[in-house]
Amino acid sequence: xxxxxxxxxxxxxxxxxxxxxxxxxxxxxxxxxxxxxxxxxxxxxxxxxxxxxxxxxxxxxxxxxxxxxxxxxxxxxxxxxxxxxxxxxxxxxxxxxxxxxxxxxxxxxxxxxxxxxxxxxxxxxxxxxxxxxxxxxxxxxxxxxxxxxxxxxxxxxxxxxxxxxxxxxxxxxxxxxxxxxxxxxxxxxxxxxxxxxxxxxxxxxxx
Length: 207
Ligand code: GRF
What we know:
This protein has helices at residues 14-24, 43-50, 66-79, 96-101, 122-129, 164-187, 202-206, and strands spanning 3-9, 30-37, 55-57, 84-87, 106-110, 133-140, 150-157, 191-194, 197-200. By secondary structure, the chain is an alpha/beta fold.
C-alpha cells in the first residue's frame, strides 16, 4: 500500500513543493493525500492546487479552543487515510490530540541545527550568535517546541558577508534536499528510538 502523507502549511510552501517534486522524480514512494493550511491566503495552497492536490483550510476562528482545532485537523487527516504527518512551515504548536492520533508519525523541519536556536527566526538567531555553521533539522514532533528525536540534519557554512536573507536562502536549499530524504527514511520503518536517538535498525535494514 502506498504511504499517504498529510502536509500542514501556513505560508510559502517551498518545502511542500520539494516533497511534491521528490515524489514526481520517483525518489519518494508516497502520495500526498491532503494539504492542510491554517491560513486561507497561504501561497503554498496555490502550489498544492497546481499539483492537483486536495487542500483543506482549517481556521482557528472556527473552533472554540486549541483542542477542538487540533481534533478537527486529526479528523481531516484520518478522513484522508494519512499515515505520516509532515509539518512544512506550519506556524502553530502541535497539541496532544494530533500527537496521540499519530504517535511518532509527525515530522517537522526547522531551519537550524537543533537543539540550537529553536523557535521563531532561527536563521537570525544563528547569525546574531555568530555560529560558523548553520543548517536544517528534520525531527519527530513531541510536545516540546522543536523537540523530538532528530531524523536528519544538514549543515551549511555561515559566511562573513551573510545577511539573514542570504543565510536563510542557503539553509532553504538544504531543507529542500533534506525533507524528502527524511520522510523516506521514516516511511521505510527500519528504525527505532533509543532514548532520544533515532537509530537505523541494522537487523531490520538488512532483512
Ligand atoms: C522553513 O524555513 C521551515 O524550516 C520552517 O518554516 C519555513 C517554511 O518555508 N519551519 P516554506 O513554507 O516551506 O517555504
